[in-house]
Write a sequence for this structure.
């Protein structure tokens, strides 16, 4: 008890110094948590990918589409359970900054393949009945205050003109990690309009989504699909949904790496600040530590007092920082709207925050603790605190 | 007990200690031989830098000599390891410093209790001991006060209570009245005299203060690293 009492009272001895160090820790732990969450958000798509789902795209580039006729050929490949397709639309809702992904899909097969998107049956039926109907994620509905029956006009960029949709269903995620910032509408509607216009980009889809019967056959089925279309006009590249998503992240990987480095630099900076604080603290109290040694306390006890104080400050700072990470990340997520499909502080991030705080606490006190533990008693008694 | 016939509690033989200053070795103590009997109250006097505090530190086991031996009740403490010395100090020596050396974040009660936290005493037993020690030094009404809330004399009395709390056989005091006014100094010296006469504690005290030294049964002088008695000093002054 005396040990803990000493640690806590010592920690509160220079209140301003401790308060400023705590403030630095809170800001550092909070920043670290936020930056790590941004990195996690970047990989959210890959994290949510199902292991048995494959994506088949044009081998040359995603820009080039695949013929609709491939659907039946893919379905015929041994090991394929279901096939669906999705086409990137890239429309603008009111303002270019209001970004959210839009896909033209085959509704029945698509939603059957993505059970993580939960749509109420009456709403889904209404969507199926309306060729101009759209299903939007809960996040879009909340961000843009859209309800069932509302008009949702998009200005096309790949597909020119204004496209009128009506919100017929709002889907929720099966868990908080599910992306609810997407919009889906009938591929038939897109294809029909494109046929009416010029006949270009018709009967084509962006990518095929393939559900494999057995997770152990994923690689084999991928190769088999690509083999079917080898030497055709549109050769395919089939990969797992996860690899497909990571491919997107890799395009901006330098940025992600930079964010990750900055998050650790913040920790190194607070480590330096904390080490300086503990060095000053231990130096000022050298005569007290010498007195404790005179009374019979061991060098290990002295070192533990300093490390304990440092860890106590770090833990208090981390607790406040972690507690603030949640509301601040919610505020940040609301500010950036649908930019990040999933923006959630993960358990891993919290564990890293705790680990960093403990690391800062221990490392910052290592040198002052070692010095106080090993300094000769007579030298310690001579110092003036 | 007649201290003149008691066996020596501390026997110091051929003790030497030097410090290294700027690459030079400066001898502080040379060939010191001294005996302190159980129940003695020995005063150590001498000019600044004469090695009084160094000798006191060596007797108390908080510094190591370059040569010689210090036998405490037959045990050569110069041969003990740091851990053994720490245990020995905790059970055998009580310390009184010039500037009290109390822990500022602990109350008078907690400061006195500190040495007892190293023992196996229960919380209740510790409380009883601390209350008795603080009563002995006349500070029963100051138990919850922090050092900053006490006068210099009161702080030194708390330090004395801390020094005797573990019932040590030896008390070492380094200029215990050096930072006190006359009245407080007298209180402290009276208290030390009681520790010696009533409780039978052996005391070795370093002081510059002649009045403080007069409380001691014997006075030794240290000058240029050499020890002499009052008679030697008198003889030298006559020459």
């Amino acid at each position: 008890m005396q040990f803990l009492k000493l640690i806590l009272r010592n920690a509160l001895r220079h209140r301003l110094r401790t308060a400023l160090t705590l403030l630095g820790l809170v800001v550092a732990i909070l920043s670290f948590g936020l930056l790590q969450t941004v990195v996690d958000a970047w990989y959210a798509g890959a994290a949510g990918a199902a292991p048995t789902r494959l994506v088949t795209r044009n081998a040359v580039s995603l820009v080039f589409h695949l013929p609709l006729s491939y659907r039946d050929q893919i379905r015929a490949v041994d090991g394929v359970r279901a096939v669906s397709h999705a086409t990137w639309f890239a429309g603008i809702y009111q303002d270019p900054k209001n970004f959210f992904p839009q896909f033209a899909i085959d509704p029945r097969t698509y939603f059957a393949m993505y059970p993580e998107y939960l749509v109420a049956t009456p709403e889904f039926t209404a969507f199926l009945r309306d060729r101009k109907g759209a299903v939007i994620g809960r996040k879009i509905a909340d961000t843009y205050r859209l309800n069932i029956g509302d008009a949702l006009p998009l200005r096309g960029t790949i597909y020119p003109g204004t496209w009128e949709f009506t919100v017929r269903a709002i889907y929720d995620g099966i868990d908080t990690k599910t992306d609810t910032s997407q919009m889906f509408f009938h591929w038939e509607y897109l294809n029909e309009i494109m046929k009416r216009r010029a006949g270009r980009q018709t009967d084509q889809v962006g990518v095929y989504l393939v559900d494999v019967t057995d997770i152990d056959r994923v690689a084999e089925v991928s190769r088999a699909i690509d083999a079917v279309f080898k030497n055709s006009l549109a050769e395919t590249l089939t990969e797992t949904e996860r690899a497909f998503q990571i491919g997107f992240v890799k395009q901006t990987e330098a940025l992600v790496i930079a964010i990750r480095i900055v998050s650790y630099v913040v920790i190194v900076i607070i480590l330096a600040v904390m080490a300086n604080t503990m060095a000053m603290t231990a130096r000022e109290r050298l005569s007290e530590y010498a007195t404790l040694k005179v009374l019979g306390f061991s060098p290990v006890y002295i070192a533990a007092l300093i490390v304990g104080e440092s860890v106590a400050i770090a833990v208090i700072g981390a607790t406040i920082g972690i507690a603030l990470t949640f509301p601040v990340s919610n505020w940040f997520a609301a500010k950036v709207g649908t930019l990040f499909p999933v923006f959630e502080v993960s358990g891993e991030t919290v564990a890293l925050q705790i680990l960093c705080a403990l690391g800062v606490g221990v490392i910052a006190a290592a040198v002052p603790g070692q010095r106080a533990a090993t300094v000769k008693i007579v030298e310690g008694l001579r110092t003036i605190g | 007990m007649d201290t003149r016939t008691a066996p020596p509690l501390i026997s110091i033989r051929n003790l030497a200690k030097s410090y290294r200053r700027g690459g030079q070795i400066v001898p502080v103590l040379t060939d010191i031989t001294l005996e302190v009997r159980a129940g003695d109250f020995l005063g150590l006097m001498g000019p600044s830098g004469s090695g009084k505090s160094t000798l006191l530190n060596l007797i108390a086991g908080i510094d190591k000599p370059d040569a010689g031996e210090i036998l405490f009740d037959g045990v050569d403490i110069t041969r003990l390891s740091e851990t053994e010395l720490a245990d020995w100090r905790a059970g055998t020596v009580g310390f009184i410093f010039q500037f009290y050396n109390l822990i500022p974040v602990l109350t008078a009660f907690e400061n006195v209790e500190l040495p007892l936290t190293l023992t196996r005493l229960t919380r209740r037993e510790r409380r009883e001991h601390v209350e008795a020690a603080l009563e002995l030094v006349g500070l029963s009404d100051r138990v919850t006060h922090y050092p900053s809330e006490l006068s210099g004399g009161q702080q030194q009395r708390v330090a004395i209570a801390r020094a005797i709390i573990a019932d040590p056989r030896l008390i070492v005091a380094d200029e215990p009245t050096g930072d006190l006014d006359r009245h407080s100094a007298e209180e402290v010296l009276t208290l030390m005299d009681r520790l010696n006469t009533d409780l039978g504690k052996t005391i070795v005290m370093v002081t510059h203060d002649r009045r403080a030294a007069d409380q001691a049964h014997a006075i030794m002088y240290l000058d240029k690293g050499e020890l002499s008695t009052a008679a030697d000093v008198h003889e030298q002054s006559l020459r």
Notes: The first strand of chain B starts at residue 8 and ends at 21. Strands of chain B lie at 8-21, 24-37, 41-45, 67-72, 75-76, 93-96, 170-174, 202-206, 218-223, 226-229.
